[in-house]
Amino acid sequence: MSDCGCDKAKANLYELLRGELCAEESAPIRDHIAECEGCQDEQNVCIQLTSVVKRACEEERVTNCPPSELRDAILRGLRASV
């Protein structure tokens, strides 16, 4: 049984989306995805998942940042000790 390209596309999808594949590696995968509805769906899921995780990480960074007063006090203390 020959692979129609789905296995390779799905195995390399995140690398493709992050731009980690060279043009020679990515071209056949992009061509396959353009023609395969199942792989297009998989790509859309990966894009949405990546976006949600990125947004959650950004929100986590913002909510876990120390208050600006604390940051300023630490910087003043560091400058005074130099």
Helical percentage: over 70%
Question: What would you call the shape?
Answer: elongated
Question: Stretches where pLDDT falls below 50 for ≥5 residues?
Answer: none
Structural class by SSE content: mainly alpha
Number of helices in the DSSP assignment? 5
Radius of gyration, whole Å = 22 Å
Proportion of strand residues: under 5%
Could you give the distance between the termini?
A: 70 Å
Order of helices and strands: HHHHH
How many distinct beta strands? 0
Question: Largest sheet at a glance?
Answer: none
**Overall mean pLDDT score?**
84
What would you say this structure looks like, in words?
By secondary structure, the protein is an all-alpha fold.
Gist?
By secondary structure, the protein is mainly alpha-helical. It has five helices and no strands. 78% of the residues lie in helices and 0% in strands.
What characteristics describe this protein?
82 residues; mainly alpha; 5 helices
Topology:
Blueprint lengths: L5 H6 L1 H5 L5 H13 L1 H27 L4 H13 L2
